Structure formats: structure tokens, C-alpha cells
């Protein structure tokens, strides 16, 4: 069983829909990251969380440390949001030198 | 501003040939540097990380090596490439935990 699990693996939605991607982890962490990988392969760091909630534009990320769960929400989704979204954690006893990755969620937004 | 440069963007190399991928960071000092690989259809895998000049930690045994000759330069190398070395290689850095990671644009390596 992977230490970081994401669901769903694939998600197709219509433009404008509210999107939720989930991440569960089984290890103690110091931080959780949401990354976005575009078709060309480049990766952008969206959020780093250790507690609570963060918002950037139409993206919202939440984390529940007790439940070891995080969600990434996209409001008013747009075709340009189509990408692979990856959850990753800094797991104890490691520090920031090691990220443990989920397998990603492929999001496709249809116009 | 802080930026990270990685080159080349794509590379096709024959089996048995050497490899050198370079990554440089600008606008920050003493970053932690990382090399990741993403095989086709797979997730990201940490290959090497470095917390300082000449300090390299390897995560998995493999046909690759890494070096950090300068504070903001990280090089991924191989003496003889294998077919299984094909993949998408990403360099990344972070200054400290609270600032998150910044990734390079990646190198798509095909070993033929």
C-alpha cells in the first residue's frame, strides 16, 4: 500500500464544475504539497500545507492532520486546469530532503 | 528573483553512451537540490538530493550519479546509459521547508 494515496485517478468534468481531488496518507508528516504537472511535463508547486486551509485564486487546499487527509478544490473549472495533480508529503523522520509522492490525478476539463 | 534552469529539454542517446544533465539555480544561496525521475506512466521518484557543495545522497541504487561542484549547480551523470534510464528527469530546489519546492522544466531522455 502506498504511503500517499490519491483519488480519483482520473477525473473528467465539464467547464464550470467544482472539482475535488483527495489525498490520504498513512505516515506522520511535517508538510503536504499539491503539485500540478502539465502535459509537457513541467511541474508547478501549488500549495504547501501543514495545517488548515490555503486559497490561491480558484484553487483551495485543505488539510486535516488528525484524519491524515487533504483535498484540493478547483472552483469554476476551466479547460486550462486540465493537468495531473500530484499530492506529496514530507514524511517523518525525513525533513524536506525527501518528498513521498502520490500517483497523481489526471484532470480533464471539457469546454 | 529565483529561477531554476535545466537543460537540455529533450535528449535521445544510444545505449552505452554517457549522460550529463545540468541544473542551475539563480537568486538564492545554499539551496537544497534534487533530481527526480518519472518513468512513463509512473510517479515521481527521488534519485539524489544535495544539501551543500560536494554533499550528495542517493535514494536508490542505479546507473546514475550526481555531483554538485558549485553551490547552485547540480549535475546528473551516467557513464553508460541503459534502456531503463529513459524517462523524464526533473531538477528541483528548496531553500527551507517553509518555502516549498520549485521545479525545473524537465529533460525528456530517450535511450535507444
Chain-wise SSE layout:
The complex is a heterodimer of chains A (111) and B (112).
Chain A: E1 4-7, E2 10-14, E3 19-25, E4 29-37, E5 43-49, E6 52-56, E7 59-64, E8 69-74, E9 83-91, E10 100-101, E11 105-110
Parallel strand pairs in A: 2-11
Antiparallel strand pairs in A: 1-3, 3-8, 4-5, 4-9, 6-7, 7-8, 9-10, 9-11
Chain B: E1 3-7, E2 10-13, E3 19-26, E4 32-38, E5 44-52, E6 55-58, E7 65-70, E8 73-78, E9 87-94, E10 102-103, E11 107-111
Parallel strand pairs in B: 2-11
Antiparallel strand pairs in B: 1-3, 3-8, 4-5, 4-9, 5-6, 7-8, 9-10, 9-11
Describe this structure in words.
The complex is a heterodimer of chains A (111) and B (112). Chain A is an all-beta fold. Chain A contains no helices and eleven strands. In chain A, strands 2, 4, 5, 9, 10 and 11 form a six-stranded mixed beta sheet that branches. A five-stranded antiparallel beta sheet of chain A has the order 1-3-8-7-6, with no helix packed on it. The termini of chain A are far apart. The mean pLDDT of chain A is 92. In chain B, 0% of the residues lie in helices and 57% in strands. In chain B, strands 2, 4, 5, 6, 9, 10 and 11 form a seven-stranded mixed beta sheet that branches.
Search tags:
heterodimer, A: mainly beta, 6-stranded mixed beta sheet, 5-stranded antiparallel beta sheet, B: 112 residues, mainly beta, 7-stranded mixed beta sheet, 4-stranded antiparallel beta sheet, 57% strand
Amino acid at each position: 500500500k502506498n504511503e500517499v494515496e490519491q483519488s480519483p485517478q482520473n477525473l473528467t468534468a465539464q467547464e464550470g464544475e467544482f472539482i475535488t481531488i483527495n489525498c490520504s496518507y498513512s505516515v506522520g508528516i511535517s508538510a503536504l504539497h499539491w503539485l500540478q504537472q502539465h502535459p509537457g511535463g513541467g511541474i508547478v508547486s501549488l500549495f504547501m500545507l501543514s495545517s488548515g486551509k490555503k486559497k490561491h485564486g480558484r484553487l483551495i487546499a485543505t488539510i486535516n492532520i488528525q484524519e491524515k487527509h487533504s483535498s484540493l478544490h478547483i472552483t469554476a473549472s476551466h479547460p486550462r486546469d486540465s493537468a495531473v495533480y500530484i499530492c506529496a508529503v514530507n514524511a517523518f523522520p525525513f525533513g524536506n530532503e525527501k518528498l513521498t509522492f502520490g500517483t497523481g490525478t489526471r484532470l480533464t476539463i471539457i469546454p | 528573483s529565483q529561477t531554476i534552469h535545466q537543460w537540455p529539454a529533450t535528449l535521445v542517446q544510444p545505449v552505452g553512451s554517457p549522460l550529463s544533465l545540468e541544473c542551475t539555480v539563480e537568486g538564492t544561496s545554499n539551496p537544497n537540490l534534487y533530481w527526480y525521475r518519472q518513468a512513463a506512466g509512473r510517479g515521481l521518484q527521488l534519485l539524489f538530493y544535495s544539501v551543500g557543495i560536494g554533499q550528495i545522497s542517493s535514494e536508490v541504487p542505479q546507473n546514475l550519479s550526481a555531483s554538485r561542484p558549485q553551490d547552485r549547480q547540480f549535475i546528473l551523470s551516467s557513464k553508460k546509459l541503459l534502456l531503463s534510464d529513459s524517462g523524464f528527469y526533473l531538477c528541483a530546489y528548496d531553500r527551507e521547508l517553509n518555502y516549498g519546492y520549485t521545479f525545473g522544466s524537465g529533460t525528456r531522455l530517450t535511450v535507444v
